[in-house]
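Hi there, hope your week has been kind to you so far. Do you reckon you could talk me through the fold, stretch by stretch? I've dropped the whole record in just underneath, so have a look:
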Amino acid sequence: MKILNKLFLLGVFALPIGLAGCSGEIITTPPPAAVVETMPAPPSPSYVWIPGHYVARGGVYTWRNGYYRPAPRYRKVWVPSRYVQTSRGYVYRRGHWRR
Protein backbone atom coordinates (compact mmCIF):
# COMPACT_ATOMS: atom_id res chain seq x y z
CA MET A 1 0.00 0.00 0.00
CA LYS A 2 2.85 2.38 0.79
CA ILE A 3 4.34 1.78 -2.64
CA LEU A 4 1.03 2.64 -4.32
CA ASN A 5 0.79 5.86 -2.32
CA LYS A 6 4.33 6.83 -3.33
CA LEU A 7 3.63 6.09 -6.99
CA PHE A 8 0.43 8.12 -6.84
CA LEU A 9 2.21 11.10 -5.29
CA LEU A 10 5.02 10.83 -7.82
CA GLY A 11 2.50 10.89 -10.66
CA VAL A 12 0.55 13.79 -9.18
CA PHE A 13 3.64 15.99 -8.82
CA ALA A 14 6.04 14.77 -11.52
CA LEU A 15 3.62 14.51 -14.44
CA PRO A 16 2.51 18.17 -14.45
CA ILE A 17 6.13 19.32 -14.16
CA GLY A 18 7.13 17.16 -17.11
CA LEU A 19 4.22 18.29 -19.23
CA ALA A 20 4.79 21.96 -18.45
CA GLY A 21 8.19 21.82 -20.10
CA CYS A 22 6.94 20.36 -23.37
CA SER A 23 3.45 21.78 -23.84
CA GLY A 24 3.53 25.33 -22.50
CA GLU A 25 0.56 27.57 -21.94
CA ILE A 26 -2.44 26.97 -24.20
CA ILE A 27 -3.88 30.16 -25.69
CA THR A 28 -7.31 30.23 -27.36
CA THR A 29 -6.59 33.20 -29.67
CA PRO A 30 -3.99 33.13 -32.43
CA PRO A 31 -0.88 35.31 -32.09
CA PRO A 32 -0.95 38.73 -33.79
CA ALA A 33 0.90 39.32 -37.06
CA ALA A 34 4.67 39.41 -36.62
CA VAL A 35 6.31 42.80 -36.13
CA VAL A 36 8.51 43.87 -39.05
CA GLU A 37 12.01 44.21 -37.63
CA THR A 38 15.02 46.00 -39.06
CA MET A 39 18.10 43.85 -38.61
CA PRO A 40 21.13 45.83 -37.53
CA ALA A 41 24.55 44.91 -38.87
CA PRO A 42 25.89 41.71 -37.24
CA PRO A 43 28.67 42.05 -34.67
CA SER A 44 30.75 39.66 -36.82
CA PRO A 45 30.19 37.32 -39.79
CA SER A 46 29.94 34.35 -37.42
CA TYR A 47 26.67 35.62 -35.87
CA VAL A 48 23.15 34.57 -36.90
CA TRP A 49 19.99 36.68 -36.61
CA ILE A 50 17.33 35.12 -34.36
CA PRO A 51 14.01 36.74 -35.39
CA GLY A 52 11.64 38.25 -32.86
CA HIS A 53 8.47 36.45 -31.83
CA TYR A 54 5.46 36.69 -29.57
CA VAL A 55 5.42 35.10 -26.12
CA ALA A 56 2.15 34.60 -24.24
CA ARG A 57 2.02 35.06 -20.49
CA GLY A 58 -1.30 34.92 -18.71
CA GLY A 59 -3.19 34.94 -22.01
CA VAL A 60 -1.53 38.18 -23.24
CA TYR A 61 0.91 38.22 -26.16
CA THR A 62 4.10 40.24 -25.75
CA TRP A 63 6.64 40.84 -28.53
CA ARG A 64 10.22 39.72 -27.87
CA ASN A 65 12.70 41.53 -30.16
CA GLY A 66 15.10 39.65 -32.41
CA TYR A 67 18.82 39.49 -31.64
CA TYR A 68 22.14 38.19 -32.92
CA ARG A 69 23.63 35.02 -31.53
CA PRO A 70 26.91 33.24 -32.30
CA ALA A 71 26.32 30.52 -34.88
CA PRO A 72 26.99 27.00 -33.64
CA ARG A 73 29.48 24.73 -35.32
CA TYR A 74 28.51 21.91 -37.65
CA ARG A 75 26.26 23.92 -39.99
CA LYS A 76 23.12 23.93 -37.90
CA VAL A 77 20.04 25.91 -38.95
CA TRP A 78 17.85 28.00 -36.64
CA VAL A 79 14.21 26.88 -36.47
CA PRO A 80 12.27 29.96 -35.26
CA SER A 81 9.90 30.01 -32.29
CA ARG A 82 6.28 29.61 -33.29
CA TYR A 83 2.76 28.83 -32.13
CA VAL A 84 1.21 25.57 -33.25
CA GLN A 85 -2.57 25.25 -33.49
CA THR A 86 -4.01 22.23 -31.68
CA SER A 87 -7.55 21.11 -30.98
CA ARG A 88 -7.37 22.89 -27.59
CA GLY A 89 -5.79 26.15 -28.78
CA TYR A 90 -2.35 27.51 -29.65
CA VAL A 91 0.79 26.09 -28.02
CA TYR A 92 4.20 27.81 -28.02
CA ARG A 93 7.15 25.92 -29.52
CA ARG A 94 10.53 27.33 -28.58
CA GLY A 95 13.08 28.01 -31.33
CA HIS A 96 16.02 25.62 -31.61
CA TRP A 97 19.05 24.63 -33.68
CA ARG A 98 18.64 21.74 -36.15
CA ARG A 99 21.19 19.92 -38.30
User: Anything to note?
Assistant: The first strand starts at residue 26 and ends at 27. The beta strands are 26-27, 47-50, 53-57, 60-64, 67-70, 77-79, 82-85, 90-93, 96-98.
